[in-house]
Fold:
Amino acid sequence: MIYKTFKDKQLSALGMGCMRFPVLKGTNQIDEEKTAEMFDYAIQNGINYFDTAWGYHGGESETVMGELLSAYPRESFYLASKFPGYDSSTHTRVAEVFEEQLKKCRV
Structure:
């Protein structure tokens, strides 16, 4: 894996985007078993940067990421999640939304 230095951190040049996880057949529910396999493969192959957002998978991407990444040492990965700026109801609740994202991602 190629790594890039960012603020004294070594981030994998290839990150894992978490906008489209596999889902259970006939549903919108994330297939956690297949997603866990994807995470394990990514980490075993040097990926240490994961990217999600508040709205991915109807708000469930952060929750599933938090659950699955909790199986790995926290210092072994970096996580980015994006604020839902498209939703004007969140503009006055920035700190509250951010805290909720931290809880969902278990960081």
User: Anything to note?
Assistant: The radius of gyration is 14 Å. The longest strand covers residues 49-53. The chain has three helices and five strands. Helices lie at 32-44, 61-69, 94-105.
